[in-house]
Design brief:
Layout: E1 5-6, E2 17-20, E3 26-32, E4 37-42, E5 46-50, E6 56-62, E7 67-73, E8 76-81, E9 84-89, E10 94-100, E11 109-112, E12 117-121, E13 126-130, E14 136-140, E15 147-153, E16 158-163, E17 169-175, E18 180-188, E19 191-199, E20 204-210, E21 215-221, E22 230-234, E23 241-244, E24 249-252, E25 257-262, H1 266-269, E26 281-286, E27 289-294, E28 302-308, E29 314-321, H2 322-326, E30 329-331, E31 339-347, E32 350-359
Antiparallel strand pairs: 1-32, 2-25, 3-4, 4-5, 5-6, 7-8, 8-9, 9-10, 11-12, 12-13, 13-14, 15-16, 16-17, 17-18, 19-20, 20-21, 21-22, 23-24, 24-25, 26-27, 27-30, 28-29, 28-31, 31-32
Length: about 350
C-alpha cells in the first residue's frame, strides 16, 4: 500500500495564489490525484498540463473549439465537445477514444457518479454515458436553455446543474431514481453561475459565478438547505473549478490564470481547528496493513476518524483518542475496495487534518 501525499493543517486565513501561463480563455480545470498534476482546457479546446513549478505547459493535444465540461476519473481525462466525449490518457496526454452523443444541441456540462457512469447535457437533453462502452442513454429531454456546469450528488443520487442567468441564478436537480427535474432547489443572488463542485469531505458544494463586476466563489451546504457564504471574491471572472481534497485547495480557471484558494472549507465552517503542536500525520504500510501515526497530538483529545471515498461519501467512522495515535494505530480497511480514499481526523473542536491514501489488498 502506498501513501500518495499529505497536506498540512487547515489554515485560518485566506491567501489566493495564481498559476500564470501563456494560455488564454481558460475554461475548465481538474487534478489527477495519481500524479498530482493539474490539467486545464481552454475555450479553443487546447489541453494544458501542470509544469510542476506553478505554471502550465501546452500538452500538445486539442479537443477542438467549443469544448465544454472536463473531468479526470480513473486516470483518464474526459472532455465534451459539441456532440462528442473525447477520452485521453494522461502524462503524456493522448487521445484514446471518441464517443459520439446523439445531441439536440452542443454539449455543455459533464460529471461523474464515482462509479462507471458519466452524465452530460446540452441545452435540451440530459444524457447518461457508460464509461465502459461509451453507450449513451437519454435520461431527460426538457432541461432549460442556459444550464451550465453540473455535479453528481451522491447523497441524493441526483445530478445538480447550475443555471446561468442574470441575477438571481438557480441550482436545478435531476433525480435519477424518480426521473424528475426540479425547477428550483436554491436561488443565489449572483450573475452567471458556471460550475459546481462537491467539496470539503462532502459537506459543501462550491460554485463559480460572476458578481456585480468581479467574480465570486460561493459555498452551499450539501443538503442545499440554504445559500452558505462567499468562499472567495475574485478579480477576474471564474469559469470551471476543482477542489483538491489532498491539499485542501480550491483551484478555478480564469481567462489567463488558475488562482488557488487554500483551505476554503474553514471559511464557512466557523469552527476552530484542533490545537496541536505538530501537523505531522503519517500513514505507514506494513505488509498488507496501514497504520496512522500522529506523534504530537494532544493525548487526551477525543477524535473521530473518518474514511471517505473521492466523491465525499462516508465509508467508515470510528472513535479514537490522541493516545491511540501516538503509537501506530491500525487503520481498519477490511472490506474496503482497492482505490484512493481520504482520511480525516476530527476533534471535538473541529477538523484537524486530512490526507489521501490508497488501498491495495
Amino acid at each position: 500500500m502506498k501513501l500518495f501525499r499529505h497536506f498540512a493543517l487547515v489554515a485560518l486565513f485566506l491567501v489566493v495564489s495564481s498559476a500564470y501561463s501563456q494560455f488564454s480563455s481558460g475554461r475548465n480545470i481538474a487534478k489527477d490525484d495519481a500524479s498530482g498534476l493539474w490539467y486545464l482546457v481552454t475555450g479553443m479546446g487546447q489541453i494544458w498540463e501542470d509544469d510542476g513549478m506553478g505554471g502550465f505547459d501546452y500538452a500538445g493535444a486539442i479537443a477542438g473549439a467549443n469544448a465544454g465540461g472536463m473531468l479526470i476519473a480513473n486516470g483518464k481525462m474526459y472532455v465534451v465537445r459539441i456532440n462528442t466525449i473525447k477520452v485521453y490518457d494522461l502524462d503524456p496526454v493522448v487521445l484514446v477514444d471518441t464517443w459520439t452523443i446523439p445531441v439536440s444541441d452542443w454539449l455543455v456540462g459533464l460529471c461523474w457518479d464515482g462509479d462507471t457512469t458519466l452524465y452530460c447535457h446540452d441545452q435540451v437533453n440530459l444524457y447518461g454515458v457508460s464509461m465502459n462502452t461509451g453507450q449513451t442513454t437519454t435520461l431527460y429531454n426538457d432541461i432549460a436553455v442556459n444550464d451550465q456546469g453540473m455535479e453528481y450528488d451522491p447523497f441524493g443520487d441526483r445530478v445538480l446543474i447550475v443555471r446561468r442567468a442574470i441575477t438571481p441564478s438557480v441550482i436545478m436537480a435531476y433525480d435519477l431514481q424518480a426521473n424528475t427535474y426540479d425547477s428550483v432547489l436554491v436561488t443565489i443572488n449572483a450573475y452567471y453561475m458556471r460550475d459546481i463542485y462537491l467539496s470539503c469531505n462532502g459537506s459543501q458544494f462550491l460554485i463559480s459565478a460572476g458578481g456585480t463586476q468581479d467574480g465570486i466563489i460561493y459555498s452551499v451546504p450539501s443538503d442545499l438547505s440554504h445559500v452558505g457564504d462567499t468562499a472567495a471574491s475574485t478579480y477576474s471572472q471564474p469559469w470551471g473549478l476543482c477542489y483538491d481534497a489532498v491539499d485542501d485547495i480550491l483551484a478555478y480557471a480564469t481567462e489567463d490564470s488558475v488562482p488557488h484558494v487554500p483551505a476554503p472549507c474553514i471559511l464557512f465552517t466557523d469552527v476552530p481547528e484542533l490545537e496541536v503542536t505538530s501537523t505531522s500525520v503519517e500513514i505507514r504500510g506494513y505488509g498488507d496493513e496501514l497504520f496512522v501515526l500522529w506523534e504530537n497530538v494532544e493525548v487526551n483529545e477525543e477524535l473521530r476518524l473518518h474514511i471517505y471515498d473521492p466523491m465525499g461519501r462516508s465509508i467508515r467512522t470510528e472513535q479514537v483518542f490522541g493516545y491511540d495515535l501516538v503509537e501506530p494505530y491500525r487503520l481498519n480497511v477490511d472490506g474496503i475496495s482497492n482505490g484512493a480514499y481520504i482520511l480525516v481526523l476530527e476533534g471535538r473542536t473541529g477538523k484537524a487534518v486530512s490526507t489521501l491514501f490508497t488501498v491495495a489488498h
